[in-house]
Amino acid sequence: MRGLFLYFCRIKTNKMLQLVFSDAQYWENFLPLTYTRPVADMRVGILTFRERWEKLLNKKESFFITEEYLHAKYAQPKSGEALVIVPNFLPSEGVLNQIKNLKIGEALVYENEIIASRISSLEGFSLAHIENTIDIEESLVFFKRPWDLFSYNDKAIRFDFDLVTKGRKSQPIPPTTFVKGNKEDVFIEEGVDIDFSFLNTKDGPVYIGKNAKIMENVSIKGPVAICDHVLVKFGTQISGASTFGPHCKICGEAGDVVMFGYSSKAHGGYLGNSVIGEWCNMGAGTNASNLKNNYSLIKMWSYKDQNYIDTHLQFCGTIMGDHGKTAINTRLNSGTVVGVAANIFKPEFPPHLVNNFSWGGNEEDPKFFLEKAYETAKVMMARRNITLTEADKSILKYIYENF
To answer: Which fold has domain 18-142?
Structure first.
């Protein structure tokens, strides 16, 4: 599956316009984060791409053109009329209106790529059915590689803050919580527990989601998104356009970090300029370098290119796929990529690429037994009252056997 929108669907017709996300161009670019999800299910800012587009387009559900093995968890589109979007960008108001006003057979083109198209039917569709293309002349915030998620997270947080809080009123800021900057740039959802902490909005807003708990002596320098049910532990320092997705735990020092959700860095240590998937755990004292000793630009492994490529960044830390784990006092080099369900516990630095299901972290180390990986995932997920489903297991099995 690599041709844009070249898709055939045999499911019975749905006459309602459906919102469909295409992985055709960018799925490989975002590995290992997308081994376990479509591009649209990645989080940046406050929301996932899917959540953002559903909100922008007033849709309650959406569908995915993605890898076949992900169909077990992510709904395929029905045949019939569809608005097909490449999801990994932030639309301007003008481009959003263009998308909303697309007619059947029209498509929007950005940098020679179709990024949105309205079509009469997915069944038997090909590019020949596009009758009119419209070039987008303005510059968009477009996410093309994993490190773009933290590099452009400042813009994403601001975009989502306006989208999520528009026309709404924040819960009161407790009198014991000090705010440096504009208090209107703090938005607190219902059920938040925050006392004796310090919020700085001079460089960007601070969003705190439902039932989040911010413990004492925490310092947060915006723009920062603390999503629903996140726990921020005593003395944590957060800065630089950071996002912590639902049910994450965070402690120590973090800056320019995106954690998708359900992951834990619950003890001291530094994490910077990094993207962490779901169901990851970083042991106490884990430190991830984001800067080389010689201050040179950092290269990072690209699964698509099967080589290390230049990120053009001086600051770049760790990209970690779902279910990744580090032991206590783990040290990660700048530009490290950690695969799905990898376990790092050796005393030395692991290589810059840690394989999927690695048991140890080094290239020569054996694979983690699949049944043991299921068992670990099941126990960790149960701690958040989430069940490891057969669909989850089938996806992990496919990754284990094929990647």
So the answer is: Spore Coat Polysaccharide Biosynthesis Protein SpsA; Chain A (3.90.550)
The full set of domain ranges for the chain reads: 18-142, 148-402
Give per-10-residue mean pLDDT for the chain (403 aa). 35 64 96 98 98 97 97 92 96 97 96 94 72 94 98 98 97 97 98 97 98 98 98 96 98 98 97 98 97 97 98 98 98 98 96 98 95 97 96 98 97
SS3 content of the chain, % helix, strand, coil (to 5): 20, 30, 50
50 token code pair: 């899917």
Angstrom distance (rounded) from CA 136 to CA 231: 41
Nearest Cα to Cα of residue 263 among 303, 399, 160, 251: 251
How far does CA 250 lie from the centroid of its chain?
16
pTM of the predicted model over 0.85: yes
Q: Closest Cα partner for 68 from 396, 403, 401, 395?
A: 395
* Domain covering 148-402 in this structure, CATH number: 2.160.10.10
Sign, CA torsion 176/181/184/190: negative
Neighbour tally for 209: CB within 10 Å: 22
Select from 313, 344, 352 the least CA-distant residue to 328: 344
**Is residue 64 within a helix (H) or strand (E), and if so which, with residue range?**
strand 63-65
